[in-house]
Amino acid sequence: MNSTYYVAMLVVAIIVTLLYSLFPIYNKINPTLGGLPIFYWYQILLLAVTTILSAVVVHFVKEEGER
Q1: Is there a smaller number of Cβ atoms within 10 Å at the N or the C end of the chain?
Q2: pTM for the whole structure
Q3: How far is residue 30's CA from residue 59's CA, in Å, rounded to a whole number?
């Protein structure tokens, strides 16, 4: 792996850490969706965002390496 991969993953890690650090904003009981508080929905959403961002980085770095 080249250094581009590590830099890109570091940027993704920083973005995700900043999103998770917004805890006071999403630490609420109301509103609820499907019986779950917004806290749990935010956590589930961030898991999906983290997965997508990581997959995008891997995809673009892999394409760059194949050229």
Answers
A1: C
A2: 0.70
A3: 38
